[in-house]
Amino acid sequence: MTNVRGFKRGGVSTVSRIHYHSEPIENAFLPMNALLLLRENQFSVEAKPVVSEGQEVKEGQLVARGYGKNSSHVHSPIPGIVRRIGKTVTPDGYETTSIVISLEGSFSVLGKRPERYLWRSLNKTDISHIIQDKGLMRVSTGEPLHQIISDCSKRDGIIIAVNALEMDQYRRVEEEIMLRRINDVVDACAIAARMVKPDRIVFMIDTDFPKAQIPVIMLAAAQTELEISVERFQRRFPQDLPRQIAIALGLKDDSSLCILEPSTLVVLHDAIVSNKPHIEQYVYIGGGAMKAPVILKARIGTTIGDLIEECGGFSGQPDRICINDPYRGLAAADLDVPLTRSTRAVLALTKHETKPASERPCNRCGNCLRACPEGLHPYLLNKLLLADKIEEAFAAGLGRCTFCGACAYTCWSRIPLVERFKSVCLKDKSR
Amino acid sequence: MKSIPETNLTAPHIHDWHTTSKAAWICSATLMPVVMASVLLYGMPAVSVWIASLIGAILAETLVAVALKKLSLSDGSSVLTSLLVACAIPPGAPFYIPVSASLFAILGIKTVFGGLGSNWMNPALGGIAFAYANWPNAMRRFMLPSGMVNIDGLSASTPLDVARNFNGTEASRVMDAFRTVGYPLSDIDITVTGFLNDSLFSHLGARLPEGYVDLIIGLKPGTLGESTLLAVLAGSIVLLAFNLIKLEIPLGMIVAFSILSRIFGTGLPGEELFGGDILFALSSGGFMLATFYMATDPVTSPVDHRLAGLYGLGIGALAFIFRRWGAHAEGIVYAILVMNILVPTVERKLMPGLKASERATVL
């Protein structure tokens, strides 16, 4: 437990960290209008609306039903009236159906004491149904959680890896959840363990995580009959690629890994124990253009503009606003982008942080080779793609690229490597 | 609430502070100690060479801007190239040598192959080789730095030439040979060497011969860049601290060059095998400047760090062979150029991380 594990290859080390003053996490104001996207990302399938315009909905009421793979139910985060069902473009540029709900009427969840169900009496099928019915999602990837859990429960020798690693200098959500709601996280692990029947559960924490908290984790773990261990990791980006986690944990491949984040686990806990659908989300709001970073518990469908306003607005001119990861995340085109179930952070970055510069030709500095966690040669792939040699680029390993963005982060010439790779890979997939 | 500007919104949203142009400008700035030292040593003749070389670069960039309708002076690489070209030119050289050498470097080597990042040969070294080929005599005509005593004709030749042309009787050490022919010693050297011997080396049972301090602080005839080793080392520390160069290249070069120098020496009559003088080999001539500033040019050196070490070893070995048995007293320029040419082949054969078949088709 004392020795620090690390990832062998590539990556960008993120040693310096933005200071975060830990305060109790507050609930954000309810939005006047909640904008619900029925499609989480490019891989997911749209849910079908089951309400009509003008209909009154309660807090937590099902408004759209998911059908089939990569599709999940959507619930109303606020009580109100369905104003509009129309089309919106997601931050990653895909068109999706959206539902706008205006706040009205009385609350059924907020202000009441959370219900506490004794989940231990539930059997596997019940839990599986609840996870599906409440529209739970894995927060890091936006995949439906029931799908992941049922996939893993079909396999033997699963290891649940609770990934509490914060990879970049900004985000703190997972760490704060680990500090504040460790009992709920461990409980959720027990719930997941009932479904998946894992061999063991590993908590992955990074070297900046307060050491004093480790005994607390172990104490919480001792109350369950689970085999829980804690592994410390060197801070670095990226640290959430399943294949790398598997190698770092000494496994052969990632087929026996079930990676869940604390933020996903608390949602799972709230759904099973408090009967709450996935309508709330812990969000880190920070970046150089904000006065101080804040973590809020906000309702899905709140626009990021409202969240930023609630934190006191911009204190500097933001160069760009990014959602989630500063390396891989999406850039918000405007402040009306809503919070989704896979949003963990909103970062308003100044020019000082984005460090924009004009793109220049590659001068072979070799940083991308050292940064690539997959051991690829990004400079070479770029060269091949510029020469339109797509087949050769795939022969050189383009297919293994995870689009983590480490190479483009270190690139001296500011070549948009990831963007180029992504567009070619997507085109190839559709071919 | 302030609006968000519409920039190109592609991930990643944050970047490392390095940019290509910043690297070039920092690299140029680290040459400032060399510039200042040369001006202190030689005065106006040095200033005229630096300025002529810069004028050549600006002229070349103007021509490029007119012809290709793009201004690339701001990326700093032309200024760096012109400074490095001037480093290899002796002070007092006629102004047309630095001007045309940097013109050729930027136009003939960099621009015609497609500009920054596309040249297969280090532009500065190309310009220097151009000057060597066209004005061999002017490029080997040195002047005395101020503060060095003139002894009829001898002292205007570089230490390397003195060691090369030594044909006296037995002298197993380079410094002994220098004293035999009466190569001048400065007061600074005598004072500093005496102090070092009294305070440090005497306790270790060793003795530093006089003459090395003169070589290190630049009291020797030579080109602008090679004169003051101390200034070069100061700049190279900054380069390494800012992570602008691959450490493997200078390391490989110094290792290979030192070992070969120890084994085969400088070619003095009385020299034994394994009796060479490493300190003299490294501190005379332009080896150190070329090591940190010219061989490390990322465009013409291998991308991979492991290959960069190999590349450094190759340059070190070739530089020694050219210096010891070649026609010129200084072989480092051609050693780097030869290895520049070999880089694509070496990458095709040895690039780590790719299978042999992939290398053949891809690279």
What does this structure look like?
The complex is a heterodimer of chains A (431) and B (363). In chain A, the strands form four sheets. In chain A, strands 2-15-14-18-16-17 form a six-stranded mixed beta sheet. Chain A has a five-stranded parallel beta sheet with strand order 1-12-11-10-13, with helices on both faces. Chain A has four domains: 4-21 and 113-273, Rossmann fold; 31-107, Beta Barrel (OB fold (Dihydrolipoamide Acetyltransferase, E2P)); 279-356, Ubiquitin-like (UB roll) (Roll); 367-430, no CATH class. Chain A is globular. Chain A has helices at residues 124-133, 145-153, 173-180, 182-196, 213-222, 242-248, 262-273, 304-310, 351-354, 367-371, 378-386, 390-395, 406-410, 417-430; strands spanning 4-5, 26-27, 33-37, 48-49, 56-57, 62-65, 74-75, 80-89, 95-103, 159-163, 200-206, 228-233, 257-260, 280-286, 294-299, 320-323, 330-332, 345-349. Chain A is built from 14 helices and 18 strands. The longest helix of chain A has 15 residues, at 182-196. In chain A, helix 11 crosses helix 14. Chain A is 28% helix and 20% strand. By secondary structure, chain A is of the alpha/beta class. Mean pLDDT of chain B is 88; it is low at 1-7. Chain B has 18 helices and no strands. By secondary structure, chain B is mostly helical. In chain B, helix 1 (20-30) packs parallel to helix 4 and helix 4 crosses helix 5. Chain B has three domains: 20-139, no CATH class; 149-221, no CATH class; 245-363, no CATH class. Classes of the chains: A alpha/beta (431), B mainly alpha (363). Chains A and B meet through helix 8, strand 16, strand 17, helix 10 and helix 11 of A and helix 1 and helix 18 of B.
Instruction: Give the biggest beta sheet of chain A.
Output: 6 strands, mixed
Largest Cβ-defined interface: A-B, 62 and 43 residues
Q: What is the distance, rounded to the nearest whole angstrom, between the alpha carbons of the first and last residues of chain A?
A: 48 Å
Number of helices of chain A: 14
What is the residue-averaged pLDDT of chain B? 88
How many discrete structural domains of chain B? 3
Hey, roughly how much beta strand do the residues of chain A contain?
15-25%
Oligomer state equals: heterodimer
What gap, in angstroms, lies between the N and C termini of chain B? 51 Å
For the record, the CATH architecture of the largest domain in chain A stands as 3-Layer(aba) Sandwich
| Largest sheet, strands/sense/barrel of chain B | none
